[in-house]
Amino acid sequence: MKPYPDHRDSGLAWLGAIPAPWEVRRNGRLFAQRVETGFPDLPIMEVSLKTGVRVRDMNNGARKQVMSDRAKYKRAAKGDIAYNMMRMWQGAVGVAPVDGLVSPAYVVARPFTDTEPRYFSYLFRTSAYMGEVDGYSRGIVKDRNRLYWEDFKRMPACVPPPEEQRQIANFLDGHGRVVQQFIRNRRRLIDALTEQKQKIIDRLVTRGIRSNVRLKPSGIDWLGDVPAHWDVLKIKRVVRLDPSRSESLNLRESDAPAVFLPMERISTDGRVDASDQRAIRTLWQGFTYFRRGDVILAKITPCFENGKGACLCELPTAIGFGTTELIVLRAGPGLVPEFLRRLTSLSAFLRFGVESMTGAAGQQRVSPGFVANFPIPIPPVDEQHAIVRAISLRSADADRAIEEAERAIELAREYRARLIADVVTGKVDVRHLTPPEAPELIPVDEDMKERIDDEEMIDDGAELVEEESDD
Known about the structure:
This protein has about 475 residues and is α+β, with helices and mostly antiparallel strands.
């Protein structure tokens, strides 16, 4: 890529210099508002912050809605720009892929001749333009501001010549397909490695690290045989569920810090972001209480089935609080917290938990009763420690590969966002470039899968201590 040969000042602080042939126009000179209702037979569309305008999946049980009066919905013709008035500042804008209906809370903008809507959709979703939207939006309070048509049409935009608009849109569409395929390939690798990690957890937690021990029937269909010296008990026999905050009542009015964990700060691989710390008195009411050493478990769909949860043995504050969508488990004597966390990530626990969920679609939850009555294998404490170490050791390669794949996805998205911003504002010239073509789906790393599948069980617990490494 190379810069344009000649630039001029756009007169806009957020835009800076633009290629000399480009213009700056108000959106009202590029689009006309479309307000057409009374088309009940057209499909319902929505605006995704990631993918733009798309047809809503009305058959998805978690999102199924009954449209009582489609006559009030606005028609968006194929090629129109549609945006959510309240979320335009977040990038809730896109091009209608088909003739369809959008919510009355959306604005529909019909492009004039020589206006390529795909180009402007890319421009409107840049961080610089979304920042400008805030200044043109109106409302009683900031988080309820709306970008009405009258204000949208006053907003300026940089306007390349019509053919160049199409060239830019075609290039970015092609590049988007390449990035999407790249991310899809990395996701397939992550899924395959995660599946192999799950097999490691299931096998070690239910059978132990030694292959030559005497077994006995567990009496549980999904569990099968377990080592003869293990116990099989319901969780409630060895775990305290949702401990009362009254044990820390003396801290109720304290200004001392406590970690706060909303759901987004809890990962599916057992990690938490504990950087958000607030005064205990501000968190005491309305949130789930826990303390260092507890195990937390998401109870709402889809967080539960994704395995969101963690062992809080490294919690930086003595107590903490989090989303109300957590179940807290405190290991009793004879149960290692890290091993308890592995028990709650067993595939059988997750599968039966999903089957037990109750509640409205999209808001289903696992009950504390299910957790309390779930039967678990319990080895001696020294074996629990050895199993936890073995899982970390045998999962280390997969963990590193997953981390690398996730970082690659993050970098690809960052690069694409920067590329879009540079291309649609004239910082780089792509007129001479052919739109890239997406590669074929590539197979996952079979060598990695084979290393995990074929690795023999470690029989000597002493070796685990010597070989232990950071995950």
